[in-house]
Specification:
The chain has about 575 residues and is an alpha+beta fold. It has three domains: about 5-180, 2-Layer Sandwich (Formiminotransferase-cyclodeaminase, Chain B, domain 1), CATH 3.30.990.10; about 185-350, Formiminotransferase, C-terminal subdomain (Alpha-Beta Plaits, 2-Layer Sandwich); about 360-565, Formiminotetrahydrofolate cyclodeaminase monomer, up-and-down helical bundle (Four Helix Bundle (Hemerythrin (Met), subunit A)), CATH 1.20.120. About 50% of the residues lie in helices and about 15% in strands. It is built from 18 helices and 13 strands. The chain has helices at about 15-30, 55-70, 100-120, 140, 145-150, 170-175, 195-205, 270-280, 300-310, 320-330, 340-345, 345-350, 365-370, 380-400, 410-445, 455-495, 500-525, 535-565; strands at about 5, 10, 35-40, 45-55, 90-95, 125, 175-180, 185-190, 210-215, 235, 240-250, 255-260, 285-295. The strands form three sheets. Strands 1, 2, 3, 4, 5, 6 and 7 form a seven-stranded mixed β-sheet that branches. A four-stranded antiparallel β-sheet has the order 11-12-8-13. Strands 9-10 form a two-stranded antiparallel sheet. Strand 11 and strand 12 form a beta hairpin. The chain starts with a strand and ends with a helix. About 45% of the residues are buried.
Length: about 575
């Protein structure tokens, strides 16, 4: 699974389009990343750019953009309404998919170190990348702004984490940068059936973490109650990591709750929506829909879809497209404008439409491509597809069982099996293309030149490594297909009796996938010059084959016994 991170650098230039474009072009020209958005602000004199890609490539693109900004922005001339202390004022890295915050922190600190050492820019690591609690807050790192930086960097408590700690002409030009790692922030508006900003604000204050100021008597005009330090006391809101305010949108003629969900691992989109619905109801208002500003990670939409299906006591083990459809309709994301998942979900934005994956082929085209003179796709890809179809059948039985009349109390049990089956068929579908890609790498290795002794050695090593990889893919197919048979067995034993034959066919497909992939392990092993390297893989594959054949017999016995009684 490809790791993806987002980078959202803020550059201290929002008026000179030529300067903005120079920085943006550096990002566009960086391999492996996609520039998703450029948002300049004239009043703030600041531009926010958003790009996404794999971690190594994002770090490289970010470094180049920071380098370019240090060349084309002179902080000695900068004025703007937004707090700032450097040409690249802030540069957060955000985990998007298949990467942990801990891993993202390592990339952020690596970028910070390189910027400090190679570009001579003072760098403070903030948020999750901070080395001390004192520096976790961006506001604290940036306190004093550019004008106070000359003295701040020389203070022992505020020596930069990387880069120079003395003021010179270079630092005077670039200022400092805050580089960090944070969770994904979603800008999200919820629509109300009112035009009253005051009522919208009341709901916003109910939910936002900061809540509202505590007053005597009237909650709006009453005297503010102070604490022992003379600060206003507050009634906290119900949602952590949420900022919110009410406003009126003239274009639509409605009031909205405008929210920033600053950490969707704490308060996800669907929880924020439901809480606003409840607080609005308590105040006699109704939520009519919502609006997403910018892009959203795929996982956030899938989580929302599962949440609303579970509230309906329906199985969540359905295709991603169905989960997204449920999320869009439940959240009312298409009330004000059409919501196109291909345009609004980050992972979909990054898909290369020119990259013809086998799994995207129509069924007839896949069969014809398999039948063509080309050696790939071959038995390995077909075995993976057979396994995916088997797991899909098990998933189908689980979904049907979850919705069976009279089995309402068992929906959660079958939803769990459906989600498990879905995870198997999704992974096996990926193996359809991985097997063909592995075969192609073997062919590429064999095509390497072999004129000199050095070239022969390089070619030999490449063939060995590609062949071992080509054995690992069908071995993975064997493991997944064999494991998926637990779903078919459970469904044959306990699932909807009207679909017991489907569980049996699923088991047959899974065993075919295991045996077919086993044949591919064997034929790839023949290409190894050092046979001993294949022994562990061969031994493991034989064990899996035996397990699958036993499981098939058990499942078919259950199926045939049930069918014989019908």
């Amino acid at each position: 699974m490809k790791q993806l991170i987002e980078c959202v650098p803020n550059f201290s230039e929002g008026r000179n389009q030529a300067v903005i474009e120079q920085i943006a072009e550096v990002i566009r020209q960086s391999e492996g990343v996609k520039l998703l958005n450029i948002d300049p602000g004239k009043a703030t004199n600041r531009t926010v750019m958003t790009f996404v890609g794999t971690p190594e490539e994002v770090v490289e693109a970010a470094f180049r953009a920071i380098q370019k900004a240090s060349e084309v922005i002179d902080m000695r001339q900068h004025q703007g309404e937004h707090p700032r202390f450097g040409a690249t004022d802030v540069c957060p890295l955000v985990p998007v998919s298949n990467i942990s915050m801990e891993e993202t922190v390592k990339y952020a600190r690596r970028l910070a170190k390189r910027v400090g050492e190679e570009l001579g820019v003072p760098v403070y690591c903030y948020e999750f990348a901070a080395f001390t609690p004192q520096r976790r807050s961006l506001a604290d790192c940036r306190a004093g702004e550019y004008e106070g930086l000359r003295h701040k960097i020389e203070l022992p408590d505020w020596k930069p984490d990387f880069g120079p700690s003395t003021w010179d002409e270079k630092v005077a030009t670039t200022g400092a940068s805050a580089i960090g790692a944070r969770n994904f922030l979603i800008a999200y508006n919820v629509n109300l059936n009112t035009t009253s900003v005051r009522r919208a604000n009341s709901v916003a204050f109910d939910v936002r973490e900061a809540g509202r100021i505590l007053r005597e008597g009237d909650p709006v005009t009453g005297k503010i109650i102070l604490d022992e330090n003379g600060e206003p006391k507050r009634i906290p809101g119900s949602l952590k990591k949420v900022r919110a305010i009410g406003w009126f949108i003239e274009e639509y003629g409605i009031a909205q709750i405008s929210m920033n969900l600053t950490d969707i691992t704490v308060t996800p989109l669907h929880i924020a929506f439901d809480e606003v619905c409840e607080k609005a109801r308590q105040r006699g208002l109704r939520v009519t829909g919502s609006e997403l500003v910018g892009l959203i990670p795929l996982q956030a939409m899938l989580d929302a879809g599962r949440y609303f299906l579970q509230k309906q006591q329906r199985s969540a083990g359905v295709a991603d497209a169905e989960l997204i459809k449920i999320a869009v309709k439940s959240l009312g994301l298409d009330e004000l404008a059409p919501f196109n998942p291909r345009e609004r979900i980050i992972e979909y934005q990054l898909e290369d439409e020119s990259d013809q994956k086998l799994v995207s082929f129509p069924l007839k085209q896949f069969v014809e491509e398999t039948a063509s003179e080309s050696a790939a796709p071959g038995g390995g890809s077909v075995a993976a597809l057979a396994g995916a179809l088997g797991a899909a059948l098990g998933t189908m039985v689980a979904n049907l069982s979850a919705h069976k009349r009279g089995w309402d109390q068992r929906w959660e049990e079958f939803s769990g099996w459906a989600e498990k089956g879905k995870s198997y068929y999704e992974k096996l579908l990926k193996c359809v293309d991985e097997d063909t890609e592995a075969f192609n790498r073997v062919m590429e290795a064999f095509s390497l030149p072999k004129n000199s002794e050095q070239e022969k050695a390089i070619r030999k090593t490449a063939i060995r490594e590609a062949t071992l990889q080509a054995m690992q893919i069908p071995l993975k197919v064997m493991e997944l297909a064999c494991e998926s048979m637990e779903v078919m067995r459970a469904m044959a034993q306990n699932g909807n009796p009207n679909s017991v034959s489907d569980a049996g066919v699923g088991a047959l497909c899974a065993r075919t996938a295991v045996r077919g992939a086993y044949l591919n392990v064997l034929i790839n092993a023949q290409g190894l010059d050092e046979k001993s390297l294949a022994d562990p893989i061969l031994e493991k594959s034989r064990q899996i084959l035996a397990q699958a054949e036993t499981a098939e017999k058990v499942i078919l016995k259950i199926v045939e016994e049930k069918l014989s009684k019908s």
